[in-house]
């Protein structure tokens, strides 16, 4: 009788063991399904300052390689223009500004909070490659005979230019004021002006201009903040993108494009 009971117990134990083993694949399958369900996906709208285009295009490429189910649509323009669009109700997930003043236009009404500074930048003088006006310093920009192009005062590069010129005691009457830094650079590339003030990172993107680092440039620094909007249509992807930009991979990309550390 003892032998029979022992055998029955052994059979029961074996059955339980087999039952446990057969349940493992199901548990694994459930975990895999959950992981898949939690993966980032959908559309992601990123509004970023024009000066970020090169770096962000590269960052988006790497981000989407890690999250292939996310389709990122960037919108590059002057930070003031982007802030106005957001205030007007544009559906945006992430906003990256070239200064804190335009970011504040978005955070003050509660459309976003706690932006993170992720990069810094400074201005340089750009002139056509052959420098026909023989520009060598900020003082030359104040000469009435020289055609100078600046960003509009409401745009971060314009506000920075006015501060730099004021600090150095130079008064400039520009022939045009552009809505983003890319437009200033394009005019110099096309020989439509003798000189302009742009970010050093923009000057680095072309071989069609000559760059001059002006006195006082290191004292006028633009800090770039980034934030996921409060009502972002794709909150999870927005937060992930901000984390990517502020993390090691994003910072490495920004440094390769000439941006300074935050």
Automatic annotation (TrEMBL):
InterPro entries given in the database record: ModA (IPR005950), ModA/WtpA (IPR050682)
SUPFAM superfamilies in the cross-refs: Periplasmic binding protein-like II (SSF53850)
Swiss-Prot/TrEMBL GO biological process terms: molybdate ion transport
Family: Belongs to the bacterial solute-binding protein ModA family.
Binding residues for molybdate: 51, 79, 181, 199
Protein name: Molybdate ABC transporter substrate-binding protein
Domain of life: Bacteria
Organism field: Humibacter ginsenosidimutans
